[in-house]
Write a structure and sequence with these properties.
InterPro entries: Glyco_trans_2-like (IPR001173), Nucleotide-diphossugar_trans (IPR029044). One of its GO terms (molecular function) is hexosyltransferase activity. This protein has 256 residues and is an alpha/beta fold. It is 38% helix and 24% strand. It is globular. Helix 8 packs across helix 9. It has a single domain, classed as Alpha-Beta Complex (Spore Coat Polysaccharide Biosynthesis Protein SpsA, Chain A), CATH 3.90.550.10.
Length: 256
Amino acid sequence: MELPLVSIIIPIYNSEKFIAEAVESVQKQTYHNWEIILVDDCSTDNSSSIVLEMMQKDERIQFHRLNTNSGTGIARNLGVSKASGRYISFLDADDLWKPKKLEKQLNFLKENNLPFTFSYYDWIDEDGELLNKRVEAPQNLSYRQLFFCNYIGNLTGIYDVSYFGKMEISPIRKRQDWMHWLSVLKKIKKAQAVPESLAFYRIRTNSISASKLDLLKHNFAVYRNFHGYNFGVSLLCMSGFLFTQLIIKPLYCKSI
């Protein structure tokens, strides 16, 4: 019996320091029926050269380039449009997967008859060293819970195209991953997590994760623009977000 193909979308922007390691973490998967679709968002470094060289050695790797710098959402959408797999998964150019990530998630989907799942993940620094922190999530994550906090690490999500179709990603430059998973849970109501860490999320000093003030601003924009709430309702939603972020989510962040 032929195993289903998994399409892995990796957007690239000036990622020469990390991209080879990210691709290699896919190549080391114990599940082998996958394709990588890399989309370069007009990098000005050697990212594309590194990828093109890797393509010559692995026919499962595709490479596409945007004509203008358009943001991660647009890059991911181009990748999704090129995908041939039954399943679509995402990985950023500076993050990594553990070797059994795909195998364990696909088994979990099949055993529980699910169209979507995600997993826990660990933090690493820019040099790939463990930061001794694991981000977990509610085992049965509801839309309401996700509404007030993005528990789903984008590098861990995987969905069944035969159930959802190819889902469009918001072109908004920030927090489009949260909006994407909200759209998933709006359809299925609850999501089950694989209850173990299957990936490494890299914390970078210039990343959105490193700026709490920017995070608040972009999350407010999700309530205001994605959900379409007025200013007052968006402020109320942000109060719920802050409560969850400060009181509830830390309960799911473990030292390892």
